[in-house]
Amino acid sequence: MPMHVEHGFGPVWDAESRVLVLGSMPSPKSREMHFYYGHPRNRFWPVMAAVFHDDSCLCEGMAPNWTVRARRDFALRHHMALWDVIASCDIEGASDASIRNAVPNDFSGMLRRSRISHIFTTGAKAAQLYRRLCVPLLRSHGLDDVPMTRLPSTSPANAGMSLPRLVEAYDCVGRAVS
Asked: How many other C-beta atoms lie within 10 A of the C-beta of residue 57?
């Protein structure tokens, strides 16, 4: 059964952020942790560690609050903003395919007050929802000139993508920051 879910935690960004990485909606594990890509089998953090040659975001065995702090610091140190396309929706578990009644986050303030010059979406659903819900909102604020690139999902559900292939696909995030 779908349940109505609110995002539950805010974005990670600062004035020096150069890229914005958007998922669709946090998984139940991420909502429990109150941070992005919190499922232990999600490969986002290992991919980012490889892209930036910095393993400080790999926090196996650390207390959740230390993990959140280490990953927040990692993202900001590498000029990455993190957020999700959706502020609230109806969803079954972590199934992007089940998302209904999505309400978008408004990135306009973040884009105006940072150096973000490229947006990356993690997965097909995030890209689809971004184009459908966020582009018109950004256009209404005069901010429709920031390019967006769809990246493959790092979710364990995307088992067809190996870690090396994900690292290769996400290398553009590192290049966009430098």
From this structure: 22
Q: Which two tokens stand for residue 151?
A: 């990246």
Q: What is the pLDDT of residues 95-132, one digit of tens each?
A: 888 999 999 999 999 999 999 999 999 999 999 999 99
Q: What is the pTM of this model?
A: 0.96
Q: Establish how many alpha carbons lie within 13 A of residue 92's alpha carbon, considering only the half-sphere containing its beta carbon.
A: 5
Angle at 176 between CA 135 and CA 37, to 5 degrees: 70
What burial class does residue 151 get, using C-beta atoms within 10 Å of its C-beta: 0-12 exposed, 13-18 middle, 19+ buried?
buried
What's the pLDDT tens digit per position in 79-93? 999 999 999 999 998
120 and 20 in contact (C-beta within 8 Å)?
yes
Q: CB–CB of 24/7 below 8 Å? A: no
Neighbours of 88 (CB within 10 A): 16
All residues at 6 or more sequence positions from 42 whose CB lies less than 8 Å from its CB, including other chains = 27, 154, 155, 156
The answer to whether 130 and 119 have CB atoms below 8 angstroms apart is yes
Handedness of CA 4, 9, 11, 12 (dihedral sign): negative
Instruction: Give the residue from 162, 106, 157, 158 showing the smallest Cα distance to 130.
Output: 106
Q: Are strands 118-122 and 148-151 parallel, antiparallel or unpaired?
A: parallel
